Amino acid sequence: LGHFSTEIPPETKRSSALAIFELLQQSLQCGPLTGAKPGYFKRCGSEVATIVHAFLLQTIASEEEALDLGFTDKQAVAVETWTRAAFKAAENKKPPSKS
User: Fold this and answer.
1) Torsions phi, psi of 65, nearest 5?
2) Mind spelling out the 3-state secondary structure of the chain?
3) What is the dihedral of CA 79, 84, 89, 91, to 10 degrees?
4) What is the pTM of this model?
5) Mean pLDDT over residues 34-47, rounded?
6) Does 75 have pLDDT greater than 90?
7) Can you tell me the distance from the alpha carbon of 48 to that of 38, in angstroms, rounded to the nearest whole number?
8) For residue 77, with 0-12 CB atoms within 10 Å meaning exposed, 13-18 middle and 19 or more buried, which class applies?
9) What is the spatial distance between Cα 95 and Cα 58, in angstroms, rounded to a whole number?
10) Which segment, 18-32, 50-64, 85-99, is predicted with the most confidence on average?
């Protein structure tokens, strides 16, 4: 019936990866948009950090998976950094900061 290819054109892969990265970044945003620090878990408490860690693992399980999806090296490292930071904050078993 014709040739069917599952190959995604590189530009589509890049633009899709960028959109996914931006959504992840915005989902982790806390505080004002100016001077934003996505993935900053030092004040959120271990309960929120545990939820975020699970969310990140379900979304993109590893740096390698991010690269396979078309993320840039810098984006893949950022996601991995957020995942590690969430895990570390979850392990601390601290309540949210009052400030």
Assistant:
1) -65, -40
2) CCCCCCCCCHHHHHHHHHHHHHHHHHHCCCCCCCCCCCCCCCCCCHHHHHHHHHHHHHHCCCHHHHHHCCCCHHHHHHHHHHHHHHHHHHHCCCCCCCC
3) 140
4) 0.79
5) 74
6) yes
7) 14
8) middle
9) 24
10) 50-64
Burial class (CB in 10 A: 0-12, 13-18, 19+), 33: exposed
Q: What is the pLDDT of residue 78?
A: 92
The closest of 63, 93, 67 to 80, measured between CA atoms, is 63
> Tens digits of per-residue pLDDT, 20-40?
999 998 888 765 556 666 777
CA pair distance 12, 77, nearest whole angstrom = 21
Residues 67, 87: Cα–Cα separation, whole Å: 21
* End-to-end Cα distance, the chain: 64
Q: Which of 56, 78, 69 is nearest to 12 (CA)?
A: 69
Length of the chain measured in residues? 99
Dist CA 38 CA 9 (whole Å): 30
